[in-house]
Amino acid sequence: MEHKDRIRMNIGPVHPAMHGVLKLILDVEGDTVVKAEPEIGFLHRASEKIAEMRYFSNYYPIMDKLDYVSALNMEILYASTVEKAAGITISERATYMRTIMAEIQRIMSHLIFIGSLGEDFGNLTSFIWALRERELLMTIVEKISGGRLAPMYMCNGGMFYDFPEGIDKDILEALDKIENKVKHEYSAVFTKNQIFLSRTKGIGIMTKDMIKRYGITGPIARASGINRDLRKVSPYLAYDKVDFDVPVEENGDTYSRFIVRLNEILESIKIIRQCLKQLPAGNYKTAVPWIIRIPKKDTFVKQESSRGEMGIFLVTDGSDKPYRLKLRSPTFFAIRALEELLVNVKVADAFVIVASIDPVMGEVDR
Amino acid sequence: MENLSEKLIKEFNGKLDAIKGQNNLNIVALKNKKLIKKLSWEIKNYFDILYTLTVVDYSPVFELNYVFSNYENDDILIVKVNLDEKDLSIDSITDIFDSANWEEREAYDLFGIKFNGHPDLRRILLPEDWPGHPLRKSFEINDEVRHWTGLDLKF
Amino acid sequence: MEESNEFSYPGMSEVIFMKAQKFIDTVLNWGRSNSLWPLTFGTSCCAIEMMTFGATKVDSDRLGVLFVGDSPRQSDLILVSGTITKKMARRLLNVYEQMPDPKYVIAVGACNISGGLYHDSYNTIDGIDRIMPVDAFVPGCPPRPEEFLDAVRVLQKLIKENKSKAQKNGKS
Amino acid sequence: MIFDYVYSIVSRFVFSPLSYIISFIIIAILAVIVTAFIPVFIGWVDRKYSARIQSRYGPVYVGPFGLLQNFADLTKMLGKRFIATNIDVLAFNFTPIVVATSSFAMLLLLPLGAPGLEFISIPYSLLFVYTLLAISPLLLLVAGWGENNKYALIGGFRGAAQIISYELALIIVLSSVALLSGSYSIPAIVAGQSSIWYGLYLPVTLLIFIISGLAIIEREPFDVPEASQELQAGWKVEYSGIRYGFFLIGDYVRVTVIAMLVTYLFLGGWLGPVLPGVLWFIIKAAIVLMIILTPRWIFGRPRIDQLIKFGWNWLLPLAILNLILVELFVVL
Question: pLDDT tens-digit profile of D224-235?
């Protein structure tokens, strides 16, 4: 080896701080990373091949397990794709219900992000607190859908069940609690904590140019000053009927990525409250046969999941199964930026930066 | 957006077909695969990133769907290129759209399509010693494939 | 094993030795069963529920299952939660072999029991009992956090009765 | 002094040279019991306390209130098989043994709550305890080297760098206290506080002592060498079984020692009205212990360069300034 004082560290795929099964190959000199190479594929479960073997209605469980931290977003995306391809229209109530579920899931996903970011710089308590708050919403998802992590709530044409009686009161109660915690407790642990600030501010800066080069979307792009949110740019579901802001930060460092997500939780709470107020009566489901056939065509649908812009390219050939289903995952692009982002940072910071990307490997590897 | 695809079609007269009417997507079909780089340079004026690259196996023809997008608005452009089974290679567009890097590696991994000029064309999702390209329609998931663990186990 | 027809009473020293051994075993098994430090081999969905297992609502620490988050060397129990792909299988075995005996395995989730949702996938291991000895299974896709508690209880019972795979294989 | 007491009893029954050995053995057994009690009990307090902060229960089922939880952990570690590959056997085994023995020795030297309640009394006990605390950079380097593991090596380097930059501040602070009382022996220091606790008019010294003490025992937020999120367990990564158990014991003993030192040096030790001295000592030490245990669960971990910068740029100058001020105070 030409560099005698270089150590090559193989971090992951099994490592307490690695998110899922990402593997990082770091060349370290002293305590500084000089070369980084992310390696993926440890959770490649062949979701795209399995899609070609399942009926359109039977693919929802697999979608759940793609981005398992925001499963409902995935379900909604797939449902929208199939409905667009098959020309199914869903009732207005269903769009509102889907908006509510998508935002609940977004809050839950961002809570996990906040917790794991805290854990990666050594604060285990923040992680457990975030899980505690997440459990409040988990109970609601459980009440509504019957499932926890993989709820299996959406189906072609709407939802499997209607909202149970009095769920809006539960949701509002939980949201109040979470808003209170996020505004007060989390600011004490994170934004007013000197150690946290010194560990995140100015660390892992992503410039606008870098974002555009790598094709990164979602909260990470918004933390670098790119004001793009598909919920605003091309409103789907009921997002054009509610009023919300898109939090944008300019610095592009780890701290901005944290703040963007923290503010997104508050925006999501706002959206859910409005949706609950406006929730119209009507059918929650359009009757669609279990086995549908979609004529030969290409469909491309993209939506804003909690991690960025998730898209599905669906090729159908007139049969009851997809001919080809390609998933466009946001963190697949974001993780590649690590090769540039991790150079010349300290080893300890490398983990915080990875956490700030918030990868979910199920979605990266598919 | 209509203007863009028309403009592109005019520029590449005869080499580019417009396909319209499918779910309001802007789709153009490129007849000659050697022009993909030239087209990409042209597209670079309007689009920031390669949004995704979808390969569809209509054996004996493989259809590549390049989806381009940009950050300013909602527009997307899909470029279809057909590759023959006998010559599964196409010029890489990584030097034009950097975001194509891993997408092309994935297409190489799962479909075995060679991208000429790609800086680092290796398998990305599957182990290096994996046999075959699983997302091709000809790939059969039999017991042998399912039970292959890549491990040398004694029991 | 040769069978001998003659029956002989064990001598006094042998009896004392056996009694002492049994006593030591009981004490050690008590310690082992009450202090199962897990190695969190979380690969996918089940990993999130595994974290919930250690967090507020369920609290694995009540049973002595302390998430130290450290190296395999200090762990007794490997919680394999999440799909194991073929690329991952060798890493799983590698990590498993780095754990000191006696070690126990809990396979979490449908994927690790039989393949589950991904039974017809080309890149997953259909059930990790094909590659390593498993003491307890946690069903579900993904399982509720409470089911982890049940699995730990089952494992504790197995250890106390000398019936875990590690003890059966003489690795205790 | 417990040793003298034991020796005086034993020598009544046994002739002289043998009684010396016997009383040593008795002292050793007593010390083992005390040392074993500390990780079990303090460890339980730590776990319960952290659980409460995180709104959990903590250990419940093993023993009453889960009191025997850490005892079960240690029992399990005794029954673990040894596993290691390509290690430097001498370096690998050196560290846990020294950690265990130095923990013993520290407890032997410190009075356990009342004057004369120490196992062995020597005039410079404070310096000796400091030496035993400050031995760790050597241990960390040796362990990190002997384990043949990259994480351990980086952890060892980090640990050595961290402890070297903080132990200087610690000894300076110790000297300023010794200067004030005119002695390095703990009973004398405590006796010097009969009018007013040193901690009350040297609050900065107290703060520096706690911070550098936490850094030396690698307690969070100063657990950079073992940083479980980055380096798995840092320099401990390859240790299994009872060798790891020794570290567990050593950790808790050293936390206790720091709490005891704070009590003796700054909070007047066993001095206090009405209640017996031992009780006063226990109350004070428990409060200090809880304060020391808390940061682990509410702070994150700074980066190693930030940590060392803080140590050299702020803590050390402050400690030196403090020493000068105390000296002026004493001289005038």
Answer: 666 666 666 777
B1 touches chain A (CB under 8 A): no
What is d(CA C103, CA C165) in angstroms, rounded to the nearest whole number? Answer: 9
Domain spans in chain A, listed from the N-terminal domain onward: 54-365
**Domain interval for residue C162:** 37-168
* Record: fold of A54-365: Cytochrome-c3 Hydrogenase; chain B (1.10.645)
Within-domain flag for B145: no
A window 101-130, beta carbon within 8 A of C: 112, 127-128
pLDDT tens digits along A156-170: 888 888 888 888 888
Alpha helices for chain A (secondary structure H): 47-51, 60-64, 71-86, 92-120, 124-145, 167-180, 186, 194-200, 208-214, 219-223, 230-233, 254-278, 330-336, 338-341, 347-357, 361-365
Q: Which of A319-328, B85-94, D116-125, D205-214 has the lowest mean pLDDT?
A: D116-125
Tell me what ipTM this predicted complex has.
0.84
CB < 8 Å to B22, chain A: 297-298
Q: Read off the pLDDT band of A17 (50, 70, 90).
A: low
Q: Where are the alpha helices (DSSP H) in chain B?
A: 2-11, 36-44, 100-111, 143-147
Nearest chain B Cα distance for residue A193, angstroms: 34
Q: Which of B54, B55, B71 lies nearest to residue A212, judging by beta carbons?
A: B71
Number of domains in chain C: 1
Strand order across the B16-19 sheet: B16-19, B26-30, B76-84, B61-69, B49-58
Contacting subunits of B (3+ beta carbon pairs below 8 A): A, C
Residue with the bigger pLDDT between A222 and D232: it is A222
> C49 in a domain, yes or no?
yes
**Buried-exposed string A136-151: b where 16+ CB fall within 10 A, e elsewhere:** bbbebbeebbebbbbb
Q: What is the pTM of this model?
A: 0.88
C29 falls within a domain: no
**Residue C137 domain-assigned (yes or no):** yes
Question: What is chain B's mean pLDDT, rounded?
Answer: 78
Total domains in chain B come to 1
Query: Quick one: what percent of chain C has pLDDT higher than 90?
Result: 0
Task: Name the minimum distance, in Å, from the CA of D307 to any CA of chain A.
Answer: 10
Residues in chain B whose Cβ is within 8 Å of chain C: 126-127, 130, 134, 139, 141, 145-151, 153
Q: What's B58's domain CATH number?
A: 3.30.460.80
Contact in structure between D160 and D218 (CB atoms under 8 Å): no
E strand or H helix at B28: strand B26-30
Instruction: Please give the residue range of the domain that contains residue B44.
Output: 2-140
pLDDT of residue B155: 45
